Amino acid sequence: MAPEMDQFYRSTMAIYKSIMEQFNPALENLVYLGNNYLRAFQALSEAAEVYFNAIQKIGEQALQSSTSQILGEILVQMSDTQRHLNSDLEVVVQTFHGDLLQHMEKNTKLDMQFIKDSRQHYEMEYRHRAANLEKCMSELWRMERKRDKNVREMKESVNRLHAQMQAFVSESQRAAELEEKRRYRFLAEKHLLLSNTFLQFFGRARGVLQNRVLLWKEQSEASRSPSRAHSPGLLGPVLGPPYPSGRLTPTRLDMVRPWAPPPPFAPPPAHRTLPQRPGACAPPPGASPRLPVYAAPPGPPFRPGAAWAPPWWRGRRPENPYADVWDWGWGLG
Amino acid sequence: MAPEMDQFYRSTMAIYKSIMEQFNPALENLVYLGNNYLRAFQALSEAAEVYFNAIQKIGEQALQSSTSQILGEILVQMSDTQRHLNSDLEVVVQTFHGDLLQHMEKNTKLDMQFIKDSRQHYEMEYRHRAANLEKCMSELWRMERKRDKNVREMKESVNRLHAQMQAFVSESQRAAELEEKRRYRFLAEKHLLLSNTFLQFFGRARGVLQNRVLLWKEQSEASRSPSRAHSPGLLGPVLGPPYPSGRLTPTRLDMVRPWAPPPPFAPPPAHRTLPQRPGACAPPPGASPRLPVYAAPPGPPFRPGAAWAPPWWRGRRPENPYADVWDWGWGLG
């Protein structure tokens, strides 16, 4: 057999072998890994749901409080939003499962037999044609030696068989390459579908979050102004400079800007006048009345709710170097 | 004690109790659930990485094939993109762990003692003042009965003590409310940070995918044109109408449009002329030469790579009702 035909033959057989021994097993493995991937998504969904259910409960407690309803509302909305994202993610998971993994699994099962049979048929056809061609070529040489008068017709037959064989091997090669290509394309297109679904998910998730994050930020800032509810305070200053709104804090994901440090709170003053303990019912005659405990001492103005304690805790306050921890670690805007 | 002061007292104590017995335990629980959530993220990352590593290997095999390099390139790029997304997700996870969970855990531990002490101090201070006030009021009544000449001063003292007490209880209430509010705000702001980080992640992920998905779609469509490599086919038609490019298929996430059915492929013709088996080396004298097997039969033109088999498989082709499975299930555009 001509070496180039032999080369075609080997090349075509190699393709079938590759499909059978590499592609299909790889696809089977991919289905297995894909199911793991799927389960990981589901576990994430569940963990997220449980977490945000807990957030919601805390939010509902805050809604029942006297001064923290806005904050409670934020927490509840965060929980709702998470459910929204979760249900979108569920659609991605369904796509992955229904449109990818199930198809991949089905195809792999069906294909093993098909490719095996295709290869067998090709091999048989090739051998048959090759044998036939060899036989006719031998016959031709014999006729040429004997100067048979039908040599010319035989030669034409042989040429025709040869051309048919050439066409056969090249078309078979082409067909095998196409089978291979179709399989790779199947995989690419299926994952294009998955990528597109993810793309949609990210777009929707971003849309859902974008407005809400700004809203929550404003609400959170608004919560810093003192409540006008009962227990009116003696003073009503705003607790600190309001955060500029409208711009979201850069996150760790923003590589350009480093993490903005939180605005420092005023540290508690080093020492204070001791509160006047109202031990005696009546002031000693002639003594000037002491300042009431709650009056603002000379010095920095009393700011209710500031990190340092109101006056009557002074000198009595439990050691609390970490009173600030609830207020820092956050630089919004 | 005046009922309203008693009410203040109970309200303030209730707030401390709520912080100690509801908020802090809830926060502890949240840290626990948050760690589960975190682990789920990490498991997802790993599962995704393993899956797309497998995709990459298949892609690399395709790159070594003769006609599927474009498709191999797509698969490899998908794998790279996944890594990109994974590393962004890792940043979200770090934010969740470092900026939320760790702080929440630390605060909860520190706060238990602080709130307990604050409550104790308030209780003691309240009782002390209340007892003192009662004592002075009793003294005042006694002096009034005896028509003591210092009654007026005593009355002033009692009034002053009373006013101080009122200020004390209302400021304490306010302080307690503020402690509560600070804790809810801490939670809200921390989760605002998390939401913002997710928002950034979704934005970046969308950006990364958007261009690539379009590119991959074009490349995938381009792969449908027959290769010009070796084994030139007898015919070179395009396999079918090229998909319109530029518009991505709606996914399951697009609720408005239903899932687009795949374009149907032409079914194999019912029957064909049997291939001429080149059994005899020489055609019978006088017989008209039969058409070569590979020539296009009268009827639909032969399309290499179409779902139905090339001519020499006809009548011999293994039963393959599912030859189409590699090509359908995908409607791009």
From TrEMBL, chains A, B:
Can you supply a Gene Ontology BP term from the record?
plasma membrane organization
In terms of InterPro entries, this protein maps to: AH/BAR_dom_sf, Baiap2l2_I-BAR_dom, I-BAR_dom, IRSp53/IRTKS/Pinkbar
- Alphabetical list of Pfam families matching this protein: IMD
Cited PROSITE patterns: IMD (PS51338)
The segment annotated Disordered runs over 221-247, 264-286
Q: Which SUPFAM superfamilies match?
A: BAR/IMD domain-like
Q: Name one GO cellular component term.
A: nucleoplasm
Pinpoint the IMD domain residues.
1-239
| Protein known as | BAR/IMD domain containing adaptor protein 2 like 2
- What organism is the protein native to? Ursus americanus
